[in-house]
Amino acid sequence: MGEIVNKVASSGLITIDLQDYYDKGERVVLDVKDNLFMGMVLKEKDFRAFVKETNWEEYQGKNVAIVCSADAVIPTWAYMLLASALEPFANMFVFGNENALEQALYQEKLNKLDVSGFNDARVVVKGCGDLPVPTFAYTELVRKLKPVVRSIMYGEPCSTVPVYKKKVARKG
């Protein structure tokens, strides 16, 4: 019997787990429908009173999705008032649903990713995990890595699906 060799460990593969970029902050939805008169109309005076009277410190460090789940026309200034009130407290806020919030959170983290450390690397993007990683994060990671890496694979180092391989210029 020969020596057992861990081929994965000696392969030079770099594994990226997008769960490492997951923002662990609490997520909340701020639904404008709760401020509609008769479930249909936003009254400026009442809405301004709501914004003034709300304890926005309750949103300290939280990630907020601002939506209106009712079928109503909400003026843009109303969302701007909410953004202005949330800005000093919330970690992140977006206009949109929970998916838009997750996308924005990952976008923020991936914007800070220094890809220079992946120059000519063979990268495996881990595919399974316990935390919700939006498909957007995977596609954004490919967009950032492709110009610098030698290859991108998806899955686990022992069982990958090829995604991208840099074409090598042929000699002669």
What does this 3D model show about the protein?
This protein is α/β, with parallel strands linked by helices and 172 residues long. It folds into two domains: 13-23 and 106-165, no CATH class; 27-90, no CATH class. Helices cover 27% and strands 20% of the residues. The protein contains four helices and seven strands, in the order E-E-H-E-H-E-H-E-H-E-E. It has helices at 44-53, 76-86, 98-111, 135-145; strands at residues 13-16, 27-31, 63-67, 92-95, 122-125, 151-156, 159-165. Helix 3 packs parallel to helix 4.
Break the fold down into its secondary structure elements and pairings.
Elements: E1 13-16, E2 27-31, H1 44-53, E3 63-67, H2 76-86, E4 92-95, H3 98-111, E5 122-125, H4 135-145, E6 151-156, E7 159-165
Parallel strand pairs: 1-5, 2-3, 3-4, 5-6
Antiparallel strand pairs: 6-7
Structural class: alpha/beta
Spatial strand arrangement across the major sheet: 1-5-6-7
**Can you give the helix content as a percent range?**
25-40%
- The radius of gyration computed from the alpha-carbon positions, rounded to a whole number of angstroms, is 23 Å
Number of helices: 4
Tally of domains:
2
Output the helix-strand order.
EEHEHEHEHEE
* Tally of strands: 7
Uncertain spans: 4-10
Q: Please describe the biggest sheet, giving its number of strands, its sense, and whether it closes into a barrel.
A: 4 strands, mixed
Give the percentage of residues in beta strands.
15-25%
Based on CA inertia axes, which overall geometry fits? elongated
Q: What is the overall pLDDT average?
A: 91
Could you give the distance between the termini? 45 Å
